[in-house]
């Protein structure tokens, strides 16, 4: 929705935002990723810069659960949710989160290493998916399917 003034937005009557990014890859082929945006729904992205103390399992799970609940139904659940912890910059973290929500990183290893290798914490993903099924948020299926996948 384009801004008309700071506090007023108008629909462009177009649900297909134009954006493309290119990056060098090995080989002689192009790969395209198209992400559909639901009519009337906005992509939701947020960046939270926290301290290292949040990286305790109970604290992190509670923090991420709270952030999921804050999404509410504004963008029509069920959602594809991705959380990125760490990264080199805010821009990189948000780009990785967007790609993760498209299953782009599904084949990452399930543990890191001393060099900072990216990985998926599948036990945290399972805990967050379970928590999301207990929210009761969302019009479909009695609110059971707030989120469909975690990445």
TrEMBL record:
Similarity remark: Belongs to the class-I fumarase family.
Key words of the record: 4Fe-4S, Iron, Iron-sulfur, Lyase, Metal-binding
Name used for this protein in its record: Fumarate hydratase class I
Species in which this protein is naturally found: Klebsiella grimontii
Top-level class of the enzyme under EC nomenclature: lyase
EC id: 4.2.1.2
PANTHER family the UniProt entry points to: FUMARATE HYDRATASE CLASS I, AEROBIC (PTHR30389:SF0), FUMARATE HYDRATASE-RELATED (PTHR30389)
UniProt-recorded Gene Ontology molecular function terms: 4 iron, 4 sulfur cluster binding; fumarate hydratase activity; metal ion binding
Domain Fe-S hydro-lyase tartrate dehydratase alpha-type catalytic as annotated: residue spans: 26-148
